[in-house]
Amino acid sequence: MSNVMLEVRDITTKYITRFRENIYAVDHVSLKIDEGKSLGIAGESGCGKSTLALSLMGYYFPPLHYTCGEIIIDGRNTSGMDPDDVRKSILGTEISYIPQAAMNALNPTQKIINFIEDVVQAHDPYQTKKQIYELARGCFESLGLPAEVLQKYPVELSGGMKQRTVIATSVILLPKILIADEPSSALDVTSQKMVIKMLKHLMENSFIKSLIFITHELPLLYNVVDDIMVMYAGQIVEKGTAEEVVFDPLHPYAKGLMGSIIVPEEGLRACKLTAIPGVPPNLKNPPSGCRFAERCKYVRSACWASSVSLREAGRGRAYRCILSEQELRDTYQREGQQNA
Amino acid sequence: MKGYQRYFLNKLGWFLVTLVCAFVLNFTLPRLMPGDPVAAIVARMAQGMSDATGVQAIYEQYTELFGTNRPLIVQFFIYVRNVFRGDFGFSFSMYPRTVADVLKSAIVWTVALQLPAIIVGWLIGNTLGALAAYLKGGFDKILMPVSIFMSNFPAFGMAVILLVVFGGALEWLPTSGGYGYDMIPNFSWEFIWSVIVHYQLPFWSIVAVAIGGQAIGMRSMAIYELNADYVKYARFMGIKDRKIIGYVFRNAMLPQITGLALAIGTMVGGALFVEIVFSYPGLGFTLLNGVMGQDYPLISASTLIITLMVLSANFAIEILYGVIDPRIKAAQAD
Amino acid sequence: MKHTIRQVFHSGKFVFGFSIFAAMVLLVIIYPLIFPYEPLEIISQGTFFEPGIYVNVYDSIGSRPYTLNLDDAAINRIAGKLGDKERQDMKVWLVAYGVPENEIDIADTEQLLNLWGTHYDPKKNIAGLTNAQRNYYIRLDASLDGLLSTEGVIIAVKNTDTGDLEEKRIVAQSDYVNIGQVANVRVLPLGTDNFGRDVLTEMVKATAVSLQIGFVGGIIATSIGLTLGLLAGYIGGLVDDVIMFFTNLFTVIPSFVLLILISFSIGQERRGATTVAVVIGFTSWIWTARAVRAQVISLRNRDHVNLSKLSGHSIAYIILADILPYIASYVVMALILQISTAIIAEASLSILGLGPKTSQVPTLGLMMNWAMIYQAHILGKWWAYFPVVVTIALVAFSMNLMNTGLDQVFNPALRE
């Protein structure tokens, strides 16, 4: 039984708008990641994935506010910790974050090495510049980045290079958990591949113990992560291993997502490409029933009545629907036969 | 230093080109004025003279002296040559004083007033703007309307208000001149004190307007920077807020410096009007007298000096910017 | 479009600035209708009359008197003539004359006047008294004549035949006239200026003229800036280089220098209000051109523009239909800014004496210029220049405020 690296219980965070409305962007999310495992979080824009990531980091700045829930990193509960402690001992050392569009994450007027110096000294003020330089060089080189990069300004690096630099700086203090938020979305395909390789390399060589990979691109997840979590309108709608979620999705939304992927194989022309019509609900006034009801192909009157809770389906599998596993699988099979 | 070479040469070249254009403009425009200024002087000088030939002789003599009988191009080159020698010709309205003589002291007074005032205003304004962006809340809510109010006030408007309030109603400070009417410039304590006292109102007028404008700009820049991705990322990596603030202000400062370079022309202009309001013996006042006396060598020379001052300031700021912003050096280094 | 307008009028700053501006424009339009006075008419003999209500004395004598018995009438009458300063001066004279100081109580009017009446002698040679001071005391003495009497004043008219003065009527100290019944009353809320003109009427007209000059100058400047910016931004290449060269040139050479030089060389005679407006327009387009160019460059590679290009539309069409609507908000802001700048530019020029001809129309700057030349600020005649400054400042302020408000509407990032 391996170590649980990250355990999240019922984390709920909200945005408070100018007009004092509460928008619960992350609504009672719970998850568990074991040591050595990676989790992919998928969902469309606005479903709460990035907010979840910010919440995991403990990064609450107005208008984002913590409501309830616990985050336990390698046994340490960060939810009640003093912010300065969090800054010194958690951020960067236990858990680290690679932001979206990482190329903008670097201060344009600062050399990379100077930034790394600041990062290291914020956690351990006694490191000398020389020591830091050696550390940085070692880290960069083992990740396939030339040492010259350290002396450059961000403006002198290409997009892909900047992305990889940011990944490298994020792991320089060897955090246990790394959250990568859409690390490849802003890049060309070749660079995407390099970034994925780098992340895998990090896992394999124990730079980090666990990885959370956030993306809206599903095809990517199958090859990169062990488990997948699908989010919709601030809630988890499906959880399971990558194998399970991709080839045997239960929640209609996850099923819809899989159906919208083009897989180059025989008989492609005959298959129908399905898109999910409609838009996610406005979280200012979340619907009383199932949040996906509006767009669900298989909706029935009971769906609108009351909110739906997450149903366990054994061994970490879960989905949020009033129908049973069997009913869902049957419905999908019938549909598949009709389309074939 | 090599990286700066290209940047420096670029800016220097530009400076020289603008300089030439300034010369040309300053020379030609006043001379397009209809009427013959020499005739005006002669008319003044020859008042009471009834001998027509005598008047004619004087006219010719002055024409020769002022060189208005040569073709325009030749006049131009003589003009340029003379400027470099420091000879701006004779002042028409204050003949026989030379223009250079009139300008010499005026320049000193103007530079002594404007340079510190603009710098101080810039510094205070930027600091206030930055604080407003960082502290938010009450401080910001007060600062914003006040800054908007002050920056939208034309410079001389501010000057007049200060004049009326502090000089007129409260009678704390004198309202005109660079020093007491009854004093002759010397280095005694009395004189210096008088200068300082007379200096206050014009100085603070200029500073007040400068603060308003800078504060707003800096606040916007600082807000923009504070919301930038690298700030978030630095926080994620555990860097202390205080250090991050340092980054932000450095980055927000850069466009402000550029902004100063662009605005310096307007600021100097406004400051000149402040001088006029306070009858401060600087270039503004000289210009006013020149216009009133239809004295185009004086006007021409004053505007040339003003332009030169602005150009030099602009050039200096651009070079400074090149040194401070590391991206310039980096971009040039390949 | 409607939504934008609604947003705009929701913006506090914009509404505030707009109200001030609109109020001024309304004032400028309505005032001449209610008070059809000629703005440049010289109505006073003598300079710098203080603000106040000027009642024609001749007509008030001829008006029907009403008797009012007010307690403080006598006190007010005396206080007007014999203020603290006068009392002090009288004491000084008396002491110099030789009256013991402790016998003089300046608060006791009657005693003071008695002492004065007994002892004052204009011919008496008091040591240390200058000529001017001596004349002052003579005047003071004359003004005190009859101060304590309660008799009325006799109005006499000269008999055309005999040449004698015939008593017409007596004006008692308790006679009051209703100001509304007096034939000629002129309210001068801002007094008169150095020429003797009604400052308020002049100022309203001057504001109108300045606004007009501002509009014309602003529109010209915006048009030039817009056109050059569009051309430079969209066509690019050589056109861009040339235009940018000039723009950069005139960014650094202060535009007011140019303004001064051009205005000066045009000469006093040819400088009408419109000419000045045109000159201002031609020298202040720099900022607009730059801003427009920057916007156009960022728009130039957008998809809809490329689509238009592929469809074969002409350059003119693309600029007008695809680019112009997107920069409309900037153009509006630029226009407001240019108008405000033009108004201030005109004021600055006029203060220097390089503004429109002085004889035809007043402008705000010209009024400032006159006040400065005639040293109103040194003499303390604040009404000749202070309201003008406030007006200029208000105009500029309201327009800039509108602009700031608009900026926040169009640029949500700047909202608080």
Could you explain the architecture of this structure?
The complex is a heterotrimer of chains A (340), B (334) and C (416). In chain A, helix 6 (189-204) links the parallel strand 7 and strand 8 (210-215). Chain A is built from 11 helices and 12 strands. Chain A has helices at 49-57, 83-90, 112-123, 129-142, 159-170, 189-204, 218-224, 242-247, 252-259, 302-305, 325-339, and strands at residues 4-16, 22-34, 38-42, 64-73, 76-77, 95-98, 177-181, 210-215, 227-232, 235-241, 311-312, 318-319. Chain A has 340 residues and is of the alpha/beta class. Helices cover 33% and strands 22% of the residues of chain A. Chain B has 334 residues and is an all-alpha fold. Chain B has helices at 2-31, 37-45, 52-66, 72-85, 99-135, 137-151, 155-169, 189-226, 229-236, 241-277, 283-292, 296-324, 326-332. The two termini of chain B are 13 Å apart. Chain B contains 13 helices and no strands. Chain C is built from 17 helices and 6 strands. Chain C is elongated, with a radius of gyration of 32 Å. Chains B and C meet through helix 1, helix 6, helix 7, helix 8 and helix 10 of B and helix 9, helix 10, helix 14 and helix 17 of C.
Strands of the widest sheet of chain C, in order across it, are 1-6
Q: What fraction, in percent, of the residue positions of chain C are helical?
A: 55-70%
User: What does the overall shape of chain C look like?
Assistant: elongated
Give the total of beta strands of chain C.
Answer: 6
Principal-axes shape call of chain A: globular
* Number of continuous helical runs of chain C: 17
Low-confidence stretches of chain A: none
Rounded mean pLDDT of chain C is: 80
From N to C, what is the helix and strand string of chain A?
A: EEEHEEHEHHHEHEHEEHHHEEH
Task: Determine the structural class of chain A based on helices, strands and strand pairing.
Answer: alpha/beta
